[in-house]
Amino acid sequence: MKKLAGIVFLIILFSTHSFSQDISGxxxxxxxxxxxxxEAKIVKNIQWLENNPLIENEESKEVARYVMKWVLxxxxxxxxxxxxxxxxxxxxxxxYVDDLQGIYLxxxxxxLINNQGIExxxxxxxxxxxxxxxxxxxxxxxxxxxxxxxxxxxxFKELNEEGELxxxxxxxxxxxxxxx
Length: 180
What we know:
With 180 residues, this protein is mainly α. 71% of the residues lie in helices and 0% in strands.
C-alpha cells in the first residue's frame, strides 16, 4: 500500500510539475495566431512563476525567458511599462526586487490575456501585476522566512486584503500626474 501511495504521489508530482512548466512546441511565433495558440501555456507558466518566483535554477530561468519572449513579441496584447511599483521596491532596498520585476510585468499581461475583447484598465492591470508580486512575495517568505519581509509589500498585502489596493494605486497614479 505504501508503495502504491508513493507511486501515485510521484505521478501527481511529475504530471503537475511538467504541466505547469510546459514550454514545448513551436517558439518561432510570427503571426497573431501563433501567439494565440500558446496563450493557455503562457497563463499556466505565469501562474507557476508567481508561485515559484526565485529564478535559482536553469528550468526556472527557461520558463521566465519563454514567457518574456512571448510577452515582448505578442502582437495583439501590449503591456504598458509604468514607473510606479518597481521603483518603490527599489527604494525600499528589497533584496528580491529583481525576481519581482518580471512577475509584475507577467501579472499585467495575465490581466490582459484574461480580459481580451473587453475594455481594459491600466489601473486594473497594475493591480493584477501587484497581486502577482504579492503571490510571489508570499512564496519567497515561505522559502526564506521573515528575513524576506518588506514593509512596502506588507502594506500592499494589507490593502489588497482590505479591498483597498485599487484605490491606493489610483491615488498613487493621480498624485504622480499632479506632480509632473
